[in-house]
Amino acid sequence: MLLFAIGVGLCLLSALVTLCFVSRNNPQVRKAALWLTIAAGLIFIFQSVRIALTDQSLNYTFTQIAPQLQFTFLIDRLAAFFILIVSIVTVTVAIYSLRYVEVSTSGTRRNLFIPLMNIFILSMLFFVASANSFAQLLCWELMSLSSFILVMYHYEKEETRKTGIFYFIMTQMSTIFLMLGFILMYNATGSFAIAASPFLTAGTNTLIFIFLFCGFGIKAGIIPFHKWLPYAHSSSPSNISALMSGVMIKVAIYGMVRYVIFVLDPQLWWGILILIAGTISALLGVIYALKEHDIKRLLAYHSIENIGIILIGLGLYIIFDSYGLSDLAFLSLAASLFHTLNHAIFKSLLFLTAGSVVEETGTRDIEKMGGLVKTMPFTAALFLIGALSISALPPFNGFVSELMIFQAFFSAFSIPNPYVVILLIICLSLFALTSALAAACFVKAFGIIFLAMPRSEKAQHAHEVPRAMLIGPGILAFLCIGLGVFSFQIFGWLGFKPPMPNLLWVFLTLIIFLIPTLIVMRKTTGGKIRRSGTWSCGLPAPDSQTEYTASGFSEPILTFFKPIYKTDKILIRNFWDKYDSTFKNGQAEIKVMKIFEERIYMPIANCVRYLSQKVSGAQNVDLDTFILYSFITVIILVLAVGWIL
Amino acid sequence: MTTSLLEYFFINTFFVLLVSPLFMGLIKKVKAHMQGRRGPPLLQMYYQLLKLFKKETVVSLNSSFVTLIAPYINIIFMLAASLCVPLVFIPTANFGFGNVILFLYLMVMAKIFMAFGGLDAGSSFGGMGSSREMTISAIFEPVVIIVVSALAFVLKTFNIHEMFAATLVGPSLTNAALVLTGVALFIILITETSRVPVDNPETHLELTMVHEAMILESSGPNLALMELSHAIKNTLLMAMLINILIPWGLAVTLTPISWLIGMLAFLFKGIVLAVIMGVFESVTAKSRLFGLRTFFILAFSLAFVTIMFELLV
């Protein structure tokens, strides 16, 4: 526990140091503060790995505020695992920020960045570590607020302000749902402790689940609560996007796993609900990602997809568990948790490298990039590793968790209920579609951003980012490979034996095959390569105008999924004469409908606005009416109390 | 590693390298005969590969290291995938090779690097090919997975080695479920190897080509590796179909005689299947890209019916 306290202390110190020098623009102070954060992160990694390996939980009561209210911390294996996720991303993001904070913005505003980031990280850590729903709610709120301020970092932009408010409303909604769930639980059990309680009736059990599912679901970005995610991720600074996407939405997953498995009594239909929600999130997430040309929004939609995959694992766990198939249930849960870790790693990697690209090109639009592999080769290689991991390709880590989910699905036939089997098969095929579409999307992303020729002046003159901005993502890339290749061994150390291939062998085999291939190629070409212009059907010199574009790349897929996008073609034509024979001018526009915004969010918002106008109409009246209101309230209260007692 | 594994490693790899170009040549020959031409010699692809290995490598000025590593990635991942599918004999232990998802995703890795290679040169042909290939593979993926899950369900394992072992002892051609899946596997074979009606391997016309467009910029030994890995993929998928439906001759013992029988049996079955593929390709018309849905849905329903069939019986 002492080490944890030291870690927390270092984080607070880092925040304090920068706050002391907040009005001075001193890069050394910022650097020192970030190093403190890195040290704290390393301590957390060390401690959580130790707890995860030895399976000894830590228990600590902080202070007793009131008889029923205390801050208790319990770090068991699950909590340690999520602390590990938080701290790995923290360390790498902090290393990346060493330079990113200096190059991305200017002025003393940067000084606020580091304390906020530390508070954000600490609030997530405490949320995971606390064994008490009251403390958890406080941390949740702190996490929401600090991330809200970080999203508003570039507040001078109109777009950011709009995003910030939207994000804030969504986080508050999530808090309300959580609060409802926690209050219900307190009512039923009489304590805030997070522990399994036998007193819950079936009705309360279900009601708590629904509230918590909505609360955590909003934060995790499950469709249809997902809309804040692409906005918030695209307008916040890239290191914050990495933290939000890599870690914050995982904290919501932690909440869901913790309450569903350890506190409540899961029912079969919860599993089915989570499975369906996960499948829909995964599929729609990737389908929306395909049409997105804003690099950070594209990655944000992929976060929705991956949260969906994690939920698929969780849903399968509950389904298998309710049929008493404990091996399969365990496999699904392990897959789900492993994917949580993997997603944290490769998504942070992608956001950080995307941040470097955005920094160098000055745009988030991938249509204006291209050819960066020649100017930023290391960033390109790192992004490539992230892209291959997220596309679930062997031997990278994303492959392992998806493989485990596939295997869990393949075992669906052990379930006696044929309807559930059919549901699982449908979800399986949609999951397969998701996984393949993700690969297509990342071929597009990597291909258009880094390959071929630059499509804009700025992309042409980009250069490689400073070393710190490579080392941070570099560590993550290394983990992507390591966690994939040694996955079998890692599960072995933890004492599990999931039925999956030993990827170390696969990796060694690949190397064994590589050696003779290299020798043969060396012998034949002698390593000589001639460079010549791309053949372009006799056109003089192909330039970036003739290249394939991102829109062109995803066009066939968009056509296949036209009904989902609800593409709207607007065609206005004006003619000189009344017979419509001589064309004057015209306008054509292809609009992709924002279904969720137009059909769900806006109607609710309009409804709320309408109601609040009504209420405010009743509020702006004279004193007599107010006295009447009070009088009526008192009478109703008296009657109600009399009736209840 | 046991000796059985080492032997498997060498025999399977060499055999697949040896026969793959033959089947490609044979399909071409059959198609030529169907069109009333004489066609290239049966061993044409071997000559072609030898020639390409002697040629110099020319790459585009726009291309990067991705173009240079793509052929290596293609061949090594395809060879690794080849260990998942026993052609001649089934080793006693398979150290995780043979997992059907691993097999599929090793091939996807090769495909993705081919698509990167297509985009790398900056020509619109390559981009078009990559875009279409990724689209087709995305739309087709649910079909592949459902077929594989039907196989896993019917044969009660998701390891290809064990699947073959199961069909070797059990009834295969008399099992209606397996025959239905076999048809679906044939559709997978046609699609994944870029043949009519999905793609046209003969053409270099931009409107119709998919696979060829991606490797348009490759040359010399790089092209040879690309073509070889494509041929290996063809053989592997053929072997999937053959050894699920008619696994006879697949050796389980470790005697040279049984290997020889296994090789000859596979060669014979492969030749028959290659002829069928050639005939099928000759009598089918290239489909529109957006018309492929129907073709895929056919395979999907076949696999789905298999699952229903097994679920209810």
Describe the overall structure:
The complex is a heterodimer of chains A (645) and B (313). Among the domains of chain A are: 258 residues, no CATH class; 32 residues, no CATH class; 43 residues. Helices cover 72% and strands 6% of the residues of chain A. Chain A has 24 helices and five strands. In chain A, strand 1 and strand 2 form a beta hairpin. In chain A, helix 8 crosses helix 11. Chain B has 313 residues and is mainly alpha-helical. Chain B has one domain. The mean pLDDT of chain B is 87. The chains are: A mainly alpha (645), B mainly alpha (313). Strand 3 of chain A pairs parallel with strand 1 of chain B, so a sheet runs across the interface.
End-to-end C-alpha gap of chain A: 49 Å
Tell the overall outline of chain B: globular
Radius of gyration of chain A: 27 Å
DSSP strand (E) fraction of chain A?
A: 5-15%
Give the integer mean of the pLDDT values of chain B. Answer: 87
- Measured distance between first and last alpha carbons of chain B: 41 Å
Low-confidence stretches of chain A: none
- Helix/strand/pairing category of chain A: mainly alpha
User: How many strand segments of chain A?
Assistant: 5
Count of alpha/pi helices of chain A: 24
**Sheet with most strands of chain B:** none
Q: Helical content of chain B, roughly?
A: over 70%
Radius of gyration of chain B: 19 Å
SSE ordering of chain A: HHEEHHHHHHHHHHHHHHHHHHEHHEEHH
Quick take:
The complex is a heterodimer of chains A (645) and B (313). Chain A is mainly α. Chain A has 24 helices and 5 strands.
What are the key terms here?
heterodimer, A: 645 residues, mainly alpha, two-stranded antiparallel ribbon, two-stranded antiparallel sheet, globular, B: 313 residues
